[in-house]
Amino acid sequence: MLSEFEEVGQRLRAYRLGRSLTAEDVAQELGISRAAVYRLEKGEIVKIQILSALSKLLDVSLPSMLGVGVEYYDNAIAFFERMRQLEEDSIQLLGNFSPMSWLIMSDDYMKYLRIMLIEAIPEAATDRPRHIDFIGAIVSLLEERRATASRRRVPVVSLVGSQDIERFLRLGLIGRFDLPDKIQQERRQAARHEVERLHDLMLRQPIGTQVGVVDGQPPSQTFQVYERATMSSVSLSPYRLGDQPNVTSGIALVTSAPDAVRHFERTLQTQWETAHKGSDGAYILRRMLDARQA
Q: Are 243 and 171 in contact, with CB atoms under 8 Å apart?
């Protein structure tokens, strides 16, 4: 169980990574030792002046750093690091993602995600190497998240929208639309592999993984609830890790406000009650798979 100061330390680390700063960079800017920076990120109590200086350096408000109200993340690395931290301390994860939770996708998906993200870099981008380095950092962080979730075996409850799956199968794993026909065919086959795997997962219903297929479109917001022993949290994300991924634009939010967590849990519960689960959900996926093959 993390203390409030350890939570502050975790947020500091997330924001630092999002600004591409090393511990040495922060130490030099603040005039303290690198060891002191690491102690800060482990939750050591510090003077408010240090936190204020960190707030200015990291370009984040002091309330967000302290976790008062809402934490704002304008950088995918910072946000995904914060998600990893919250997942590491969670007893259950409840999610609504498009097309499905990253945590239940196959390991093969990782190589395609990297390719899709690179494909999505604008042709006119003059700093392409920097974009590629950023994507490498994103993928490494996601791999770490998956490893943590696998090691801890945190129960996952995920909503899947039938319209999202239809689009996923139709478009395939692409970062842009102007790909050669042969590649598009390969990418649609890769998407099909993911849906086939989800279909089998729903039939088997392994302990710790629950998936519900929602007719039509579930809530348009991508969010995840982190149920924890003491204080639960919820995150809202503009970043997409499915077809046509996006990790470069938008503002992500994290809050532990009880009202917010309760509202999102209630939304998920309402959707879950009418979602198709087990063999019923698998049947819907099979029907979509067969229709795309016909």
A: yes
Q: What are phi and psi of 148, to 5 degrees?
A: -65, -45
Domain chopping of the chain, boundaries = 1-68, 69-293
CATH code for the structural domain at 1-68: 1.10.260.40
Average pLDDT over residues 140-152: 86
Closest by CA position to 12, among listed 225, 69, 45: 45
Q: Among the CATH numbers 3.30.870.10, 3.40.718.10, 1.20.272.10, 3.30.70.1060, which is that of 69-293? A: 3.30.870.10
Q: Are 222 and 96 in contact (CB under 8 A)?
A: yes
Is pLDDT at 1 greater than 60 in this prediction?
Answer: no
Element (H, E) at 146: helix 128-152
What does the radius of gyration of the chain's CA atoms come to, in whole angstroms? 20
156 burial level (CB within 10 Å; 0-12, 13-18, 19+): buried
pTM of the model: 0.83
Percent of the chain with pLDDT over 70: 97
